[in-house]
Design a protein that fits this description.
The protein has 463 residues and is α/β, with parallel strands linked by helices. It is built from 13 helices and 19 strands. The two termini are 27 Å apart.
């Protein structure tokens, strides 16, 4: 049977041939997975084998990835289906040039006194913009940083800001790889041969230091002082391998930025609603203050790709310089509001904190401890967990992932932090285990059991 024939699952009519394998751009260098998805319900994905002797075999897979971290409510949410339907019929489609009742309802729910985010971002101090994706949101955040030192009328550096030309980022960071964001990554693989930021007087330099190392941060600020323009940080480094900083690190970093006169940009695209709280920039003392925060992924509830940039009111850009087709369209606002109201009413974020603690325990006991040839450690917070691979497992990462899927669990693999300075060890590729917020305690146990089964199956294969 060919891949084109392997399109049906029992009880359903066959779907059209898998044209996406021929027509869609291959972003994976020929390493796409040999499976197709014919539907989903909750956190269950319906898969089918596309090649080999088992081509056409249909089976179910538990989603432990949340759709690249975006489908926080899983598939088939009635709440989101209703919001989409009502929004298409009634919300309209005006841009932000025209006030929208649906947009106003969302922003009041979030930022007005008593709003969901008002304790952190009161409307008197912050404004918000929408974008299509997390990368676009981070692009706008970087634009606001750069324009903070710019005289919009004279098109030159504002008095006293001309020397602020250094942005602090972190080894292993991932903020998207659109052209404007490439300087924030210390990964030559993604940067070489592509455009760089313009030279001075309007460009900037990016320095990278180890994430989570307070001494490194203090030393860096001592050296750079008044030249620091901004600090861009993930509360938990995602692509680097779910690296969680020690308690107190993020607040001290915020203090260093403020004392130097630099802006603090929090990239919460991945961490939003996944750390046991809505925002990862939080500690025992409460919200950690930021100048710009970007949220995304879960914000679209798995139905839309969207992001939100929340910035202090004094930050802005030259007129029309940040106009966007996707700036909080009414339909997007309807979906966000319905989804967040559902998450709050069901207590899903708070519940995820408790489930996440159990997930971490099970990953350590049932996966890392039982398969030391494959895994180094498990780490994480909330429903964001990473299981770091050994050299052996990293060398067989393709087979490991297909083994997991064939044993009924879908996970993603992060590339790792890369080589780091100050003698820190290389962090290998990491298996990301980040199920949707709607996952139950039984789902968590089943996910870990299937990860163990997939690990066992890999070790039984001939290398």
């Amino acid at each position: 049977m060919s891949a084109a024939d392997a399109t049906g699952i029992p009880g359903r009519e066959p779907s059209p041939p898998w044209s996406s394998r021929d027509v869609q751009f291959d972003h994976y260098g020929g390493q796409r997975l040999p499976f197709g998805c014919t539907g989903a319900s909750g956190i269950i994905q319906h898969f089918v084998e596309l090649s080999g002797s088992d081509a056409g075999r249909a089976f179910d897979v538990l989603d432990a990835s949340g759709g690249y971290g975006s489908a926080c409510l899983g598939a088939g949410s009635e709440v989101i289906a209703a919001a989409l339907s009502d929004g298409v019929r009634n919300a309209g489609y005006v841009t932000d040039e025209i006030a929208s009742s649906e947009r106003s309802l969302l922003l009041e729910r979030l930022f007005a006194p008593g709003g969901l985010f008002a304790d952190r971002f009161p409307a008197a101090d912050y404004r918000v913009s929408g974008r299509n994706s997390g990368s676009e949101g981070m692009e706008l955040a970087l634009r606001l940083v750069l324009e903070s030192r710019f005289d919009h009328r004279r098109l030159r550096a504002a008095p006293g800001t001309g020397e602020r030309d250094v942005v602090l980022a972190f080894e292993g960071a991932w903020h998207g790889w659109t052209g404007g964001l490439l300087p924030l990554m210390n990964r030559r693989h993604y940067r070489i041969g592509l455009p760089a930021i313009a030279p001075e007087p309007f460009g900037f330099r990016t320095d990278h230091i180890p994430f989570g190392d307070l001494d490194a941060a203090r030393e860096w600020f001592d050296r750079n002082g008044e030249r620091v323009l901004a600090v861009v940080v993930e509360p938990v480094q995602g692509d680097a391998g779910i690296l969680v900083p020690e308690p107190g690190y993020l607040r001290e970093l915020a203090t260093l930025a403020k004392d130097s006169g630099a802006l603090l940009v929090a990239d919460e695209v991945l961490t939003f609603a996944k750390t046991g709280q809505f925002f990862g920039m939080t500690d025992e003392s409460g919200p950690i203050p930021t100048d710009i925060t970007v949220i995304g992924k879960s914000l679209g509830m798995g139905a839309l790709s969207t992001s939100m940039v929340i910035a202090r009111r004094e930050l802005g850009a030259r007129p029309t310089g940040t106009v966007s087709t996707s700036d909080l369209r009414p339909l997007t606002c309807a979906v966000i509001r319905a989804g967040l109201d559902h998450i709050v009413s069901e207590g899903l974020v708070e519940r995820s904190g408790k489930l996440g603690a159990e997930l971490g325990r099970l990953l350590h006991e049932q996966v890392v401890a039982k398969f030391p040839d494959l895994y180094v450690e498990a780490r994480g917070v909330g429903v964001m967990h990473g299981v770091e691979l050994t050299d052996l497992a990293a060398a067989r990462i393709g087979k490991l992932r297909t083994s997991m899927i064939r044993n009924g669990v879908y996970v993603e693999f992060m590339s790792g932090a890369g080589r780091r300075s100050r003698g820190l060890r290389y962090v290998n590729a990491t298996m990301r285990v980040a199920p949707p917020l709607v996952a139950t305690a039984d789902d968590i146990e089943t996910i870990v059991a299937r990860l163990a089964a997939g690990s066992h199956a890999l070790l039984q294969e001939t290398p």
